[in-house]
Amino acid sequence: MNNTTDYYQIDDLLTDEHKMIRQTVRDFVDKEIMPLIDDHAHKHTPIPNLMKQLGSIGALGPYIPEEYGGAGMDQIAYGIIMQELERGDSAVRSAASVQSSLVMYPIFTYGSEEQKRKYLPKLASGDMIGCFGLTEPNHGSNPNGMETKFIDADDHVILNGAKFWITNSPLADIAVVWAKDEAGDIRGLVVERGMEGFTTPETHNKWSLRASATGELVFDNVKVPKENVFPNIKGLKGPLSCLNSARYGISWGVLGAAINCYEVALKFSLQREQFGRPIGGFQLQQKKLAEAITEITKAQLLAWRLGVLKNENRATPAQISLAKRNNVHTAITVARELRQVLGGMGIMGEFPFMRHAANLESVITYEGTHDVHLLITGNDITGINAFT
Ligand code: TGC
Ligand code: FAD
Asked: What are phi and psi of 115, to 5 degrees?
């Protein structure tokens, strides 16, 4: 009998350090997230003090150099952290991936030395919370059409516009915002809470990612010092390069949600009896479980190989799209299918299926929708752009 979720012994490909990090994050999730998550998802409230806790276990900016407060780890370590956090809940992984890939990464990659020193150590410790503003009410899949813009005024710029669907905006101390300058070029800038004219209204009534705060970023003639504009990047490739990092993390993260569902369903199937024997002994239930571990194993291999390519700086955006799309689809299918193994109990909050499945509806949409990633693959293999 092989009831492990490491069916192809991918552990053999990990270092002792990777396994140690995994255990640390797994212990954190079991102790601090699992007991609370159902309640927070029901109440639609974020987990208190989450970012500081994530900082204390080294889950924020793990691949950022130690000099700036990160842990200087590799991309596989980053992926493993995302996987273990999302085993708890996609909201927890979202918090860590936004902070790491969408806030720390652009500051580290495109920021001035002063910006790096000012923000990165506090973001790594979780003393500061960041968010990432790309999507707008009228521009989601097509961020190039963004309307948020700034004009030059002496030692500052004046920012106007709005961003929508922003993870952690209601809690954030800073926002990495992408906006057009007077020449129409997309630029990145750091907007700080407290700047006059900057507000972050919360978006209520989500039926997905309920333990994550989502909101808007509204800029009404906000004066942002010029020293807050990233000096080293211009164009859509700036925000899209951040998405490469976050999408890669998601391709690992969602495996955690799938693994959680698989482990619970397998255990249940061996305990629950109908017609005088465990339901795990019926072919139709075995089909669901066998297909789940098959898809999980394929997705684990994709994520691991992508991590190796990322470590070697060889992962292309299209390869990342393929893994994000495939692995999220795998996870949401596993959550939906394995819920049925539990029958009626599968809909209860004591079990993770409905929460993971509902969360994954956001994950399959954000960071590029399922269909957008298919079109990225289509473009890559044919050389023909089918977006427009
Ligand atoms: P296109 O003409 O293809 O490209 C414009 C420029 O960008 C370059 N580029 C990339 N660079 C780095 N990484 C990538 N992945 C890149 N993709 C494209 C490209 O080479 C070009 O560079 P240059 O030098 O020639 O100017 O752009 P397009 O306007 O046709 O759009 C392409 C498209 C549709 C694929 C892209 O815009 C896209 O990916 N749309 C999806 C939008 C999206 O993913 N939004 C995510 C928002 S953030 C979020 O969801 C956070 S959720 C957080 C959480 O809680 O976890
Ligand atoms: P649209 O772009 O309007 O798309 C609607 C439908 O049309 C989709 O099915 C899409 O696939 C399809 N479609 C669009 N264009 C094409 C095409 N050319 N061909 C075929 N089909 C097409 N954004 C941020 O910037 N920061 C965040 O922190 C953030 N967090 C989020 C958190 C949550 C919970 C959610 C739900 C979203 C978040 N987003 C964030 C926004 C997210 O990235 C967008 O929702 C996503 O990119 C899709 O944009 P849209 O919702 O405007 O859908």
From this structure: -60, -40
d(CA 98, CA 107): 12
Q: Where are the domains of the chain?
A: 10-129, 131-228, 237-382
For the Cβ of 165 lying below 6 angstroms from any atom of ligand 2, the answer is: yes
Q: What is the mean pLDDT of residues 35-47?
A: 97
Does ligand 2 lie within 6 Å of residue 177's CB atom? Answer: no
Are 69 and 116 in contact, with CB atoms under 8 Å apart? no
Q: What is the pTM of this model?
A: 0.98
Cα–Cα dist 222/233, whole Å: 21
- The upper half-sphere exposure of residue 232, i.e. CA atoms within 13 Å in the direction of its Cβ, equals 10
Hey, which of 209, 369, 379 would you mutate to test ligand 2's pocket, going by the most ligand atoms within 8 Å of its Cβ? 369
What is the CATH code for 10-129? Answer: 1.10.540.10
The set of catalytic residues is: 367
266 in Cβ contact with 342 (< 8 Å): no
Q: Which ligand is nearest to the CA of 209?
A: 2
Model confidence pLDDT, tens digit, residues 44-60: 999 999 999 999 999 99
Phi-psi region of 275 (alpha: psi -120 to 50; beta: other; left: phi over 0): left
Residue 232 has pLDDT above 90, yes or no: no
